[in-house]
Structures are given as C-alpha cells and as structure tokens.
Write a structure and sequence with these properties.
Elements: H1 3-15, H2 25-30, H3 34-39, H4 44-60, H5 62-67, E1 74-76, H6 78-86, E2 97-100, H7 106-115, E3 119-124, E4 127-130, H8 133-142, E5 149-152, E6 160-166, H9 180-183, E7 187-192, E8 195-200, H10 202-218, H11 220-224, H12 230-242, H13 247-257, H14 260-274, H15 280-286, H16 289-293, E9 297-298, E10 306-307, H17 312-317, H18 321-328, H19 331-343
Parallel strand pairs: 2-6
Antiparallel strand pairs: 1-2, 3-4, 3-5, 5-6, 7-8, 9-10
Length: 344
C-alpha cells in the first residue's frame, strides 16, 4: 500500500467516526479539514476562535444585511456553507463574507457597503489601503468579483471584516455568463449568529459550491498558490451526504446552465476519496463524454487545458506537486500568473 493509499484509508476511517491506523492530523491541518480535526478532537481552540471570528463578522454586517433586504442576494461559501455541509458554522475557515449579487445591482450593494463604513481596499500593516481606480476596474472587468470591501473593527481578535461581492458563480475566464436573476430567484432564509440572511436553495447552492471548487482545482493562478486541498472534496461529499439535493432537479439545472461536466468532475473525485458507493446515483446521471474528457486535466479554458502526468492522489498529496506543476506551464501561463499577482 502506497503512502497515498494509507492517507485515503485514514480519511475514510475518520469519515466513519473511527480512529485511523495512522496519524494524519498534520495533513488535515495543511488541507484545511477542520471538520475531520474536530472528529479527532484536535481542533478545540481553532473551533472556538473560528466561532468567535464568524460571530464578529456577522455582527459587523448586521446593518448591511438589513439594508439589503430588498436587493436580491445570497451569502455563499464560508459559515453558510459550513452549516449546510457539516451542520455547524464553525467547520470551514474563511477570511471574509461572500455575497452573490447580479451585476445590475452591484452599484446598489456598493452604496450599502460604503454607507456602512466599508472601503474597497487591501489590509496592510499600516491599515486599509484603498485600491486604485485601475485595480477596481480590473476586478469588475476581468473577474467575477468587485474589488473587496474592508472595514476596521474595534476588536483586536478580529480587527477587520472583509466582504467579497461576487457577480457570477462562473469564473472570469468563462465567456458564457449566467442569468443571475434566475440564480438568485432560488433562495431561502437562514440564520447565522443571530443575523437573518439569504442563501441559495440546496440544488443551486451545491452547483455554486462545485463551480467555486472546480475553479480552485483547475485555475492555473490558484494552483500556483497551492489551492488543491482535501477540504474541497470534503465539502462536496458532506454537502450531498447531509442535504436533500434532488438528483432530477440537479440534472435539470445542470443541463439548463450547461455545466454538467464541471459538477461531474467534482463529484467524481469526491467519490474517489470517500468511496462506498454513496455518490453513485449522482455520477450515473451526470456522466457524459464531455465530463469524462476533462478528468485528469487542469485549466479553466480550452486553450490552456493541460493533461496531468501524475495520478489524482499524487497531485493532492505529493511533496513534488509544485515542481511537477511548474514544469507543465508555458510562457502564456506564466504571464497570466504574474498578471494576477500584480492585481490581486
């Protein structure tokens, strides 16, 4: 049995609430698997701190959500996703609150944020440095997000609150864009730390989750920063395990949005990790030729897509990942990475 197989065997044991044969707590920490660390009772302080920070963030944004009650939006990722996938807000680490809005309403949201003391800028040792007009335009024009909004708090343990405004659930490289009015018509209310917010319905939330994670698994820029992590697949597996994601509705929405291959990719690799056949029903209806063709590849567009020369478990756990990955990049890839670094 290879070291990678031993890691996966340990992961599957923890998923069954069993003690693994080997200690993989450091791997779990590196891969941001806070839920598994909690199962092993090796993250009590992190859990407590995470809950404190999340509570402070939502308290700081309570008036923002109140003022946005007549603007269609959804909170995605972060605490909302943690609650849906793992049953509690504390099992996913994040540094911000992510909102999903339509591009048509971006100006309204911007006004709400500014009225509540938020600045579009970056956090530095000297405090908040506002973004230049060029940086703000770059975010709006070439990504699916506005430049981040940041606000200073009076709490030393949570000195800043950041809010990211997402205007699509697809990535910037994708030419085809979704009808966000349609996406945001499928929302429901939830409560986070005493603050009532809107989130996406289960099927649409799962689609949003997969598309976000697919980007982390395939973006050349994000891979260069080490974005391929085990927690991505944990989120996918536990979301399906703990929610009523109707298979017929999921396939219908995937067909309508023309994204079946991306959802299949995510479910396929989550199933490879956890096994047990629990995801077979989803895989059988999502599988098609296009979906199979992008397995064992990376890149978010056809002209940058490349074949992995190593197995899935190797690229997830190998110490040589960056060496192998960097050898696959061409000059255009390197230029793209540098361009993103200069603006992010």
């Amino acid at each position: 049995m290879t070291d990678y197989e031993k890691i996966i065997k340990a992961v599957r044991a923890i998923a069954k609430n069993e003690l693994p044969d080997i200690d993989i707590s450091e791997i779990l920490r590196e891969h941001k698997c806070l839920y598994f660390l909690a199962v092993l009772k090796k993250s009590d302080h992190e859990i407590m701190f995470n809950k404190f920070v999340i509570t402070e963030r939502y308290k700081a944004c309570a008036t923002v959500f109140e003022e946005m009650r007549n603007i269609p939006y959804a909170v995605i990722k972060g605490a909302v996703l943690s609650k849906a996938a793992y049953g509690d807000i504390v099992y996913r680490k994040s540094g911000d609150i992510d909102l999903l809005v339509s591009r048509d309403n971006a100006d309204k949201i911007t006004a709400v944020m500014r009225n509540n003391g938020f600045i579009q800028g970056r956090i530095t040792e000297e405090g908040i440095v506002p973004f230049t007009r060029q940086e703000i335009l770059f975010h709006s024009a070439l990504t699916h997000q506005t430049a981040p909004f940041v606000k200073k708090t009076e709490n030393m343990l949570c000195p800043y609150v950041q809010v990211d405004i997402n205007m699509d659930i697809l990535w910037g490289e994708q030419k085809e864009k979704f009808d966000m009015g349609y996406i945001l018509s499928k929302t429901l209310q939830t409560n986070i730390c005493g603050v009532t917010v809107y989130k996406l319905s289960p099927v649409m939330e799962f689609i949003s989750l997969c598309l976000h994670h697919y980007k982390d698994m395939n973006s050349i820029y994000l891979l260069s920063k080490g974005s391929l992590k085990l927690y991505l697949f944990c989120d996918i597996y536990y979301y399906l395990h703990n929610n009523n994601v109707d298979i017929s509705e999921l396939t219908e929405e995937c067909d309508k949005l023309n994204i079946t291959e991306y959802i299949y990719y995510c479910v396929y690799y989550a199933d490879m990790i956890f096994g047990g056949g629990k995801l077979d029903g989803y895989l059988s209806v999502l599988k098609n030729g296009k979906a199979e063709s992008i397995l064992d590849t990376f890149g978010l567009s056809g002209n940058e897509r490349k074949k992995w020369p190593i197995s899935f478990f190797e690229r997830l756990f190998s110490d040589r990942f960056f060496e192998i990955f960097n050898n696959l990049l061409d000059e255009e890839d390197i230029k793209k990475i540098r361009k993103n670094i200069s603006f992010m």
